[in-house]
Amino acid sequence: MYDWANSAFVTTIIAAVMPVYYDKVAGKGLGENVTTVYWANTQSIAALIVAILSPILGAIADYTGSKVKFVSFFAILGSIASMLAALIGEGDWLLASVLVILGTIGFAAGNTFYDALLVDVASPAERDKVSAQGYAWGYLGGGLLLGINVAMIQAWDTFGFSSSESATRMVFLTVGVWWLLFAIPLVRHVKERKPASSTSAGQAVKQAFTRLAQTFRRIKRYPELLKYMIAYWFFNDGINTVIVMATAYGSSIGIEMGSLITALLITQLVGFPSTLLFGRYASKLGAKKVLYITLALYIVIVTLGFFMENAAHFFILATLVGLVQGGSQAIARSIYADLVPPVRAAEFFGFLTISSKFSSVAGPFVFALVAGNTDSSRIGILSLIGFFVVGIVLLRFVNLSKGKQEALAEESV
Q1: Cα(36)–Cα(95) distance, rounded to whole angstroms?
Q2: Is 258 exposed, middle or buried (0-12, 13-18, 19+ CB in 10 A)?
Q3: What is the dihedral of CA 88, 89, 92, 93, to 10 degrees?
Q4: Which DSSP letter does residue 344 get?
């Protein structure tokens, strides 16, 4: 249910509503190019803060056995930031940026500990299925609230609002309430493994910095995990670039905003059953083999994107993305959970967060570089094929069985 809870922040605030509201209302008077730059800087600052915090907080959570507490704290932070966004009016770009940064920290930092809980709530044999269920319910929950939110904005008078702007402010409030409400099941009922010995907060902080330095040195003790992480950096960067550039790319070739939002809804709704399906087949066919299939389909999607001409084509691509996006992310998460030592789960998920945040600069950069030099966003989107091809090739060198043995060896020590 936590995926159901926090996915609304990404779908409604980050992907669909806030970018437009930031440009038209919060950044009114700044100029189109200025608001675009400010919005990009807002995302960069948030990502940098999360990248710095996650591995430190992850090590602390492992030492104190407090992953659920950290998820709770960041869920509250993100939900309050979302609700306070209802106060953003014309010209309040600074307030909007601060609240988006706080909300993004709540979402991304909270997910570091939420992902790490996978090793506590599911056995290795169950992780593909459980991880997929989380992503699937996230697609359904995020898509459901987004549908309601779009209706509130488009038919604002029917819902009793004075204007579309006032309806949008209420949309931000609903995201915060939704996030907080559906985080309750995890906070109340999920139990994590406690550390063998108790550690005070001060000792945990000191040990966290020491342990973070050790993580960089220790990673070479897990060669299969290291090889997987490198492969992950490539294919995950490709996936994230498709996510963050899809709307901009569609707009650049003439797709209207209404169609872009409809496509996002299609992705969310298709993602629910398809992610469950991929989770089931990962248990039967093997997680690595199913991951290969999803990444190969991404190559097809990017190739078709090059030839896209109209909204109907965009809807087809949205359906294909919904088919593989959740499955690829869920399986990638469960594979990583199998390869990390359970006693250091939050630490290693924090390490993955910081490394993937920094590596994720490459995808948009390559897209912009190719599109700028060729004066064609179509060729820019085609350049993403390289990330998936390299990821698939590197993945072939990862021995999952050996990697699981390496992780369990740490557990026994």
Answers
A1: 16
A2: exposed
A3: 70
A4: G
CA dist 167 and 376 (Å) reads 37
Q: Let me know how long the chain is.
A: 413
How far is the C-alpha of 359 from the C-alpha of 377, rounded, in Å?
Answer: 22
Residue 224 near residue 339 (C-beta atoms within 8 A): yes
Q: Are 324 and 239 in contact (CB under 8 A)?
A: no
Angle, in degrees to the nearest 10, between helices 93-116 and 67-84: 160
User: What one-character DSSP code corresponds to residue 66?
Assistant: -
DSSP state letter for 195? P
Which letter, b or e, does each residue of 244-253 get, where b requires 16 or more Cβ atoms within 10 Å of its Cβ?
Answer: bbbbebbeee
pLDDT digits (tens, 9 = 90+) for 260-272: 788 888 888 898 8
Of 45-49, 52-56, 163-167, 248-252, which gets the smallest average pLDDT?
248-252
Contact (Cβ atoms closer than 8 angstroms) between residue 137 and residue 272:
yes
How far is it, in rounded angstroms, from Cα 220 to Cα 230?
A: 12
**Contact predicate 403/339, CB 8 Å:** yes
SS (H, E, C) 258-313: HHHHHHHHHHHHHHHHHHHHHHHHHHHHCHHHHHHHHHHHHHHHHHHHHHCCCHHH
φ/ψ (deg, to 5) at 383? -65, -20
**Which tens digits make up the pLDDT trace of 201-239?**
567 667 766 766 777 777 778 899 999 999 999 998 888
Q: Which residues of 160-188 are buried (b: 16+ CB within 10 A; e: fewer)?
A: ebeebbbbbbebbebbbebbbebbeebee
